[in-house]
Design a protein that fits this description.
- The structure is a single chain.
- By secondary structure, this protein is an alpha/beta fold.
- It is built from 17 helices and eleven strands.
- Strand 1 and strand 2 form a beta hairpin.
- The protein is globular, with a radius of gyration of 22 Å.
- The protein starts with 22 loop residues before the first helix and ends with a helix.
Length: 439
């Protein structure tokens, strides 16, 4: 463990030298500079100190409880897709910044992957999820299986850092540099490279289907001319570009506690909710302040039709890791009410962007001619109706909309009725575009 040096430090920090790792001086600086700190901050500081002093530096850079994928038997194809009788192949994509991503291609039980006639569809998962999220229910309820059975050429994306995409040309996941990214890179590098690969294989434009963070990535990417030219249309479940009106109580508490700044100051770079560190931290956030009895509701809102009886099975795959920088970027959106690139602070913004504030992703840049479909819910505490409305006002086009009053954030992915409530409508939208393009 690295300790503060013997050089002179200010009087407030003298007591720490030789006892506490230097990362706690960073934490102290963050806490000292915060305005209007919550009254319960000292217990949290004690909590951070107690569990952090017992950890090695490796615990702060990204060790995961997921097994390293070392054989075809460990792949998404082998675990969830092929056992249900569907053909599946795994492809490897390398991003411009060196990450190695897994991209899975799925066809129906009667289909042939070598001869796919229908349009390619890229499924892009949300935060703390991966491509497995589209296959967690029965074949008649999971969107990945449903689209394959409908004859679509289904491609399943997995962003960097998730179980299926943990490679890099030079970095290890135990290095903090491996986790130096946010959804900005996921949109401009990961999604862009996956689209380019699918386009090169199929010679067709692609339908994007995204959920949650997958919609943030999609909307940001679609503002870029070199990316949008590869896209035929986009269907967005729980669409997000703004997060100003988030109402999820646990999320709001994390934002109020400046959790993102605290964990970064401690040297934590991977957010892995399978680790004891993060599990204990979340429990402390809930204790006496947020009702986390129904943990999912505390972070997503009330879900009407989520099949809780399958929770143990879901937890075999979810949650997947993400980066602390990604969480901080999302918290910036909540605090600032913006849909912009990552905010490094004034001086680094000038260095990175040549301006004081990060550039916004301009929704007006998405071509009016690009067909869009969106479905959102009245109980969604993350994709709030007011924020969805702001997104709609800034788009040049008029997306087709499906509003479901009783749906929460996870219902769009795991509702026992989503096949009828949501997917039939969305597939009708995609089919109509196929017919118009072929006529």
């Amino acid at each position: 463990m690295e300790y503060c040096s013997t050089r002179k430090v200010n009087r407030e920090c003298e007591v720490w030298c030789g006892v506490v790792p230097s990362r706690f001086l960073n934490l102290y600086s963050v806490l000292r500079d915060m305005e209007k700190l919550p009254a319960l901050l000292p217990p949290f500081l004690i909590f951070f100190l107690s569990f952090s002093l017992s950890l090695s530096d490796g615990d702060f850079t990204g060790n995961s409880s997921y097994p390293v994928q070392s054989s075809p038997a460990d792949s998404l194809c082998a675990q969830l897709i092929e056992p249900n009788g569907y053909s599946c192949t795994e492809h490897t994509v390398q991003t411009k910044d060196g990450y190695i991503l897994a991209l899975h291609r799925v066809s129906s039980r009667s289909g042939d992957l070598r001869v796919q006639q229908s349009h390619p569809v890229l499924l892009q998962h949300g935060l703390f999820m991966a491509g497995d999220a589209w296959f967690l229910d029965s074949t008649d309820r999971s969107l990945g299986f449903i689209l394959a059975d409908q004859g679509f050429d289904v491609w399943v994306g997995n962003v960097r850092g998730t179980r299926w995409s943990r490679g890099h040309v030079s970095l290890s996941e135990t290095e903090k540099e491996f986790w130096e990214w946010s959804w900005q890179e996921l949109a401009l590098y990961d999604l862009a490279e996956m689209l380019h690969y699918i386009n090169s294989v199929t010679s067709l434009k692609i339908f994007i289907v995204g959920h949650s963070q997958g919609t943030i990535m999609s909307l940001a990417a679609l503002t870029q001319p070199d990316i949008v030219e590869m896209v035929e249309a986009a269907a967005l479940l729980s669409p997000i570009s703004y997060l100003e009106h988030v109402s999820a109580p646990l999320v709001l508490r994390m934002v109020a506690m400046h959790l993102d700044q605290m964990v970064l100051a401690l040297g934590i770079h991977q957010l892995n909710f399978r680790s004891d560190v993060l599990v204990n931290l979340v429990e402390s956030l809930c204790d006496g302040h947020v009702d986390c009895t129904d943990f999912l509701t505390s972070i997503t809102g009330q879900n009407c039709c989520f099949n809780k009886t399958r929770m143990d099975f879901y937890l075999e795959y979810e949650p997947h890791p993400s980066s602390v920088k990604n969480l901080r970027h999302l918290f910036q959106m909540i605090r600032q009410g913006t849909f912009s690139q990552y905010d490094y602070g004034i001086w680094k913004n000038i260095l990175m962007y040549g301006r004081l504030k990060p550039p916004a992703f301009d929704l007006n840049s998405i071509p009016k001619s690009l067909p869009l479909w969106m479905s959102y819910g009245g109980n969604d505490a993350l994709a709030d109706i007011m924020d969805v409305q702001r997104t709609l006002e800034e788009l040049l086009s008029k997306p087709e909309l499906l509003y479901l009053e009783n749906y929460g954030h996870i219902d769009f992915l795991l509702s026992i009725k989503a096949n009828r409530d949501v997917y039939d409508n969305m597939i009708g939208f995609l089919r109509s575009l196929e017919k118009s393009s072929s006529s």
